[in-house]
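Structure ticket #2291
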Amino acid sequence: MKKSGKFMRYINDLPPLKELLLATNSFFRGYIVNHIIAHIPCELFRWVYYRFVVKMKMDRSVFIYMGVYLYPPTFHGISIGKNTAINRNVILDWRDDVYIGNNVNISAEAAIYTGGHRINSTDFAYYSAPVRIEDRVWIGTRAMIMPGVTIGEGAVILPGAVVTQSVPPFSLVGGVPGKVIGTRQKDLTYDLTYRGWFL
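Resolution: structure written out below.
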């Protein structure tokens, strides 16, 4: 520990070197995962990288399609349940914790945000809050989940909806901002087990 502390003090005394190391770290943690790994057409390879390099907490049954974008490359805590599918070009924001339950389907180009800026802040103040998505939630194409939202079990977020407040279980949510417009049946038994090697 002492040697490590001395080394960091030495690095901190050399701002250009420190900046170079931070930029290199950002490159390896962000650029590679988003612009190389995410586009390799082998699901097993991507899963191994996300699980053991990026350190996502997830079961082997989780299926992450090509093109998923992890924003930003800080890799905060993320946990994904069994048989969950994250489709192509989904944005996962890791500025705060993200929990995704079992048998969740996140459709193409949806976005889950955990951080942002206060609209009425004079200094564009930053804030963050965790997002929680419970079991068997279905998030439609291009829907947006905003910071601090919990989506209850079995809820459906319709395509294009912008969810700014927590959603009760088995609700059907649509619109901008998202509002409850119906309900979903509660006796859900499906498992999202479809998998392909080159998607």
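Closing remark: Residues 97 and 193 are 25 Å apart (CA to CA).
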